C-alpha cells in the first residue's frame, strides 16, 4: 500500500467564476524607461492583474517547477470550474507539459464578469477532481499488471489544490463535506470496476485568494484530518507576489524540495560591456542534494539563510571559476535536476544558457577561514541541468580508506574478523509468504529483534574487551544472545563459568591488553576482576529475557562470591606477586640488600640467645671498659642471680625482657630492702632489739 504516495497525483482546481475577474489591486508598472523618455510623452498608466490571472500564473509556476524536477513520475491534472468543469489535460505522460496547459488555458480565456454567479460554483471542479483521482494512471496500471493477483496492494493517493475566493469559514466546511461525500460515492463505484481505483487518501489544500487592501473572510488552518480518507488545510493569501511565494513554498513541501542560492556569479552589464557585476540565482532541487549538510549539521557553515517569508531556508554556495576542460571526470555521489525559482530573470537566463552550452560550474561552501571546500557542481546532460553532489572528503574512485582512519582516530585493533562473523550471522535472506506463520512476527521484525539482541553489548575494539578474546567464553557468548535457552544451553553456560573459576584457581594468564598502560598491566587478580565484571555485564543485558537466562546470571554471581579462606589465599598471592615485581624492578641490588638484612637479623637473634644464656654470656659493659662521658659511673655490686628459666618454648619478647632485666641489674646497686625482703616483706627497725633489748613486732607491740 506504500507503492504510490500522495505526490503521485495532483489535481489543480482553479475557480473561473465571475468574481475571479476582480482586480488584485497590485500595481504593475508598464513604463519603466522614465529617464530616456522624450519630453511631452505621457507615461503609461500602471495596470493590475485579476485574481484569475494571478491564480493561473502561480499555478503554472507550480507545474513548471514540478515538471523540471520530476519529469516522469509526478503527474498533474488541471481543471477549471465555472458553470461546469473543464478538464484541460489527462494523466497521460504526453499531456504533462506546460505548453499543453498554457494552450488549453488560452482557449478557456478569462472569466466573464457578466455571467450569472448563481450558476457558477467551484463544486463542479471539486467533484471532477475526485473522479479524476479514481482514474488509473499508466504507472499504476503497470504495477497492477506486474502484481497480477495482488493488484489491490497498489495504493491510490492524491492531492487536490483548490484556488478560489471563498465566502467564509462555513463555505470552506461545506466544500470539505462535499469532497468527503464524493470520495465515498466514487469508492463504491470503483469497487466493481477495473478502470477505476478507490481513493485511500486525499489531501485537500484550499488556497483562498483575496485582493490586496481587503480583509480576509477566511482564516488559516493547519492540516486537519476530516476523516480517514480526507485531510484538509486552508491558506488565506493576498493576490500577487504573496500568492506566488505561497505556492513556491507549497511545491517545496509537497515534493520534498530544497533551495540553493548561487552567489557571486560574474555577469557583464548590458549597458557597459567592459564591466561586470555579481548576481545571485536561486535554484530548487530535491532535498537529498543537501543530505550531507543535514547529516553533519554543517548548515551554518554552508551559509544557510532565511528568506523574507521566513518559512523556507536556502543554502548559499559560492560560484567558482569554471573549468575549461569539459571532459574532466568529477567523482559525484548524486545528481539532481534543478529548476530556477525566477526563470524569466536575466541572471537565471544567463546561468542556464551558460550551462546548456556544455560548461560546468563548481560551487564551494563560503567559509570565513580555512581551506576552500568544493561540495557541488552544476552541469547539463542531454539538455537538462543537474546539481551534482561532490564527495569533498575522499574520492570513491580511490582505494578504500584504511580502517585506522575512521571516526575514532587511528585505531588499529578493530574486531574485524568478529564483525565479519557478526554480519554472516545477521544477514537477511528472502522468505516466501507460504513459510511465514501469520500468527507470529513478520520475518523482518524477527530479524530486527535478533540484531538488537546481538548488539546490546558488542565492543568494537580488541583492547576494550577481555571475554571476546578468550576462546573459553565463546560457548556462553554464542548462547546467551539467543531468544530462548534450553536446559542443555544452560548447562553449557554453567560449565563455561566453572571452567573460568578453575582458570582463576590455577592463576592462568588472561588476554588483557596493555595498550596505554605502563609495565605488564594489571595484576592477575585485577585481570580476573575485569573479566568477571565484563562477563556479568554481558549476561545482565539478556537476563530479563527468560528464567533460564537469569539462572546463568545467578551462577556467575554465586561463583564470584568466594569464601574467606579463598580471599586470604588470594591476598597471600598478591603479596608474593608484589615481592616478585619489586625484585624484577630493583634487580640484583635489592637481592643483595635482602640477603644482608637476613644475615644481620640472624646475627642479632643469635646474640640475644647467647646473652640470655648465663653460661655463655659475655658482658660487654665490664668495669675495665672505659665509661662514656655522658654516662654515670656504674656501681660494682654482687652479681644478681640469673632469672628463672621458663619451661617450654620461649618467645622473642620474653628473651628480650630477660636480657634487659639482667643488664639493668648490673648497672646500679640493688635497693637494700628489695634484696633483704622475706616473702616480699621487708622488716623495719632491724637493729632496735640489739640496742634496747626490746623486740618490736607488728602493730606496735613489744616483747622482752
UniProtKB/TrEMBL annotation:
Subcellular location(s) of the protein: Cytoplasm; Nucleus
Cellular compartments per GO CC: cytoplasm; integrator complex
Keyword Cytoplasm applies: yes
Annotated segments matching region Disordered: 563-650
BP terms from Gene Ontology: cell division; centrosome localization; regulation of mitotic cell cycle
InterPro entries in UniProt: Cell_cycle_regulator_Mat89Bb
Biased composition range(s): Basic and acidic residues: 563-623
Keywords per UniProt: Cell cycle, Cell division, Cytoplasm, Mitosis, Nucleus
Principal location class: cytoplasm
Pfam families: Mat89Bb (PF10221)
Stated family: Belongs to the Integrator subunit 13 family.
Protein name, entry field: Transcript variant X3
The encoding gene: asun
Amino acid at each position: 500500500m506504500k507503492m504510490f504516495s500522495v505526490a503521485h497525483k495532483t489535481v489543480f482546481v482553479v475557480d473561473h467564476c465571475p468574481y475571479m475577474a476582480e482586480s488584485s489591486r497590485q500595481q504593475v508598472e508598464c513604463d519603466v524607461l522614465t529617464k530616456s523618455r522624450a519630453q511631452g510623452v505621457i507615461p503609461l498608466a500602471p495596470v493590475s492583474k485579476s485574481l484569475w490571472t494571478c491564480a493561473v500564473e502561480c499555478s503554472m509556476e507550480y507545474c513548471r517547477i514540478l515538471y523540471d524536477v520530476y519529469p516522469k513520475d509526478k503527474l498533474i491534472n488541471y481543471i477549471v470550474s465555472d458553470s461546469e468543469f473543464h478538464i484541460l489535460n489527462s494523466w497521460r505522460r504526453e499531456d504533462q507539459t506546460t505548453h499543453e496547459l498554457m494552450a488549453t488555458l488560452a482557449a478557456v480565456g478569462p472569466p466573464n464578469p457578466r455571467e450569472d454567479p448563481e450558476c457558477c460554483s467551484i463544486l463542479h471542479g471539486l467533484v471532477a477532481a475526485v473522479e479524476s483521482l479514481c482514474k488509473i494512471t499508466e504507472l499504476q496500471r503497470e504495477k497492477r499488471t506486474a502484481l497480477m493477483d495482488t493488484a489491490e496492494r497498489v495504493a491510490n493517493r492524491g492531492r487536490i489544490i483548490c484556488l478560489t475566493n471563498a465566502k467564509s469559514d462555513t463555505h470552506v466546511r461545506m466544500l470539505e463535506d462535499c469532497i468527503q461525500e464524493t470520495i465515498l460515492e466514487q469508492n463504491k463505484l470503483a469497487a466493481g470496476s477495473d478502470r477505476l481505483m478507490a481513493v485511500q487518501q486525499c489531501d485537500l489544500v484550499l488556497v483562498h485568494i483575496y485582493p490586496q487592501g481587503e480583509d480576509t473572510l477566511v482564516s488559516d488552518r493547519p492540516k486537519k484530518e476530516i476523516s480517514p480518507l480526507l485531510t484538509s488545510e486552508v491558506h488565506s493569501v493576498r493576490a500577487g507576489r504573496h500568492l506566488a511565494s505561497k505556492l513556491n513554498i507549497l511545491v517545496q513541501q509537497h515534493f520534498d524540495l530544497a533551495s540553493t542560492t548561487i552567489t557571486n556569479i560574474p555577469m557583464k552589464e548590458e549597458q557597459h560591456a567592459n564591466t561586470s557585476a555579481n548576481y545571485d540565482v536561486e535554484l530548487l532541487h530535491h532535498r537529498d542534494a543537501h543530505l550531507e549538510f543535514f547529516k553533519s549539521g554543517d548548515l551554518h557553515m554552508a551559509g544557510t539563510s532565511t528568506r523574507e517569508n521566513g518559512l523556507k531556508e536556502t543554502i548559499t554556495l559560492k560560484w567558482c571559476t569554471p573549468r575549461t576542460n569539459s571532459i574532466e571526470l568529477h567523482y559525484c555521489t548524486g545528481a539532481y535536476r534543478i529548476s530556477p525559482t525566477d526563470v524569466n530573470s536575466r541572471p537565471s537566463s544567463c546561468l542556464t544558457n551558460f550551462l546548456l552550452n556544455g560548461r560546468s560550474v563548481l560551487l564551494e561552501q563560503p567559509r570565513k577561514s580555512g581551506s576552500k571546500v568544493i561540495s557541488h557542481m552544476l552541469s547539463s546532460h542531454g539538455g537538462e541541468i543537474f546539481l551534482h553532489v561532490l564527495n569533498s572528503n575522499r574520492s570513491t574512485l580511490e582505494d578504500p580508506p584504511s580502517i585506522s582512519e575512521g571516526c575514532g582516530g587511528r585505531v588499529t585493533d578493530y574486531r574485524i574478523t568478529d564483525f565479519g562473523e557478526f554480519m554472516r550471522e545477521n544477514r537477511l535472506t528472502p522468505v516466501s509468504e507460504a513459510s511465514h506463520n501469520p500468527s507470529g512476527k513478520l520475518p523482518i521484525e524477527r530479524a530486527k529483534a535478533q540484531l538488537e539482541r546481538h548488539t546490546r553489548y558488542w565492543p568494537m575494539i580488541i583492547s576494550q574487551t577481555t571475554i571476546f578474546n578468550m576462546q573459553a567464553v565463546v560457548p556462553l557468548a554464542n548462547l546467551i544472545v539467543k531468544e530462548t535457552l534450553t536446559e542443555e544451553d544452560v548447562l553449557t553456560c554453567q560449565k563455561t563459568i566453572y571452567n573460568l573459576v578453575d582458570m582463576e584457581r590455577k592463576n592462568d594468564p588472561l588476554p588483557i591488553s596493555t595498550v596505554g598502560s605502563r609495565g605488564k598491566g594489571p595484576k592477575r587478580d585485577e585481570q580476573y576482576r575485569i573479566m568477571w565484571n565484563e562477563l556479568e555485564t554481558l549476561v545482565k543485558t539478556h537476563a530479563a529475557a527468560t528464567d533460564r537466562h537469569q539462572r546463568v546470571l545467578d551462577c556467575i554471581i554465586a561463583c564470584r562470591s568466594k569464601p574467606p579462606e579463598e580471599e586470604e589465599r588470594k591476598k597471600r598471592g598478591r603479596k608474593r606477586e608484589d615481592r616478585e615485581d619489586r625484585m624484577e624492578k630493583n634487580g640484583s641490588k635489592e637481592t643483595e640488600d635482602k640477603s644482608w638484612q637476613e644475615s644481620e637479623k640472624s646475627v642479632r637473634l643469635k646474640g640475644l640467645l647467647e646473652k640470655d644464656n648465663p653460661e655463655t654470656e659475655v658482658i660487654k659493659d665490664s668495669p675495665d671498659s672505659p665509661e662514656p662521658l655522658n654516662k654515670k659511673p656504674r656501681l660494682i655490686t654482687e652479681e644478681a642471680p640469673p632469672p628463672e628459666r621458663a619451661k617450654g618454648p620461649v618467645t622473642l619478647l620474653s628473651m628480650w625482657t630477660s636480657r634487659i632485666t639482667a643488664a639493668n641489674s648490673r648497672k646500679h646497686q640493688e635497693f637494700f630492702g628489695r634484696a633483704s625482703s622475706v616473702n616480699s616483706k621487708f622488716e623495719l627497725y632491724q637493729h632496735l632489739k640489739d640496742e634496747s633489748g626490746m623486740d618490736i613486732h607488728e602493730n606496735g607491740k613489744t616483747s622482752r
